[in-house]
Amino acid sequence: MVNQRDRLKDTVTNGLVFDIFEAEQAIALEEMIGINAEAINNQRFGALFGSLQIILNKCLILAVTRLYQQPNPKYLIRSIPVALKSLHKYANEFPIKKKSFVLEKLVELGYDLKQLQIMPNKEITLKIVKHFSGNLPLKPIIPDINEMQDAINMLKIVRNKAIAHRQAIEVSGLKLPSYGKIDQLIDMAKKFVIVIGNGYLGMNYELNGKYSYTSDAKRAGRSLRRLLIKAGILEDV
What we know:
- By secondary structure, this protein is mostly helical.
- It has one domain.
- The chain has 11 helices and 2 strands, in the order αααααααααββαα.
- Strands 1-2 form a two-stranded antiparallel sheet.
- Strand 1 and strand 2 form a beta hairpin.
- The longest helix is centred in the first third of the chain and has 32 residues, at 4-35.
């Protein structure tokens, strides 16, 4: 018999955490290239770094869409919808390891502490499922639902038509959401991982109120800056 807690842990640690890291790392590298584009182009490295931006953009799209991939009966998928489905179905089987932490996070999300304190663990788990299910873009493509859903829908369309499958379409006509919207999708995923990872799995995904691995993900961008300085493309200021 499958241990549901082990499966949830696998989804979080081997799926969500890796995809968040890849997404934030891709953004950090793209931003470093973008803000130094003039200096890079002046040194005639535009073709190289332009190609890297294309690759990083694909990596970002794939990572974010994986976070929100719907369950598939044919494959074991590691995504937020998969974790939510498991939490909902097996709410009785998930003990809350750090209940005070979970209640604190729910209060930050706008819930009343006194009401939460008298709830059994199952109801708290179902409230978490309801909250994130209501705030995450988990539905099929339906126009004008909300900005978050529109953003993930755009990413999925680009992934399906231009990355996963090379469809015979004009790629330039495909729209992508703003980086601000993509950041919101990543931020929501981080909040989910913090609540479930810390509260239910006893993992440590928050440090001083911030997601633990964001600084590590941005390290690649800082390393790229040092490389550009050593190559003489940027000045060390």
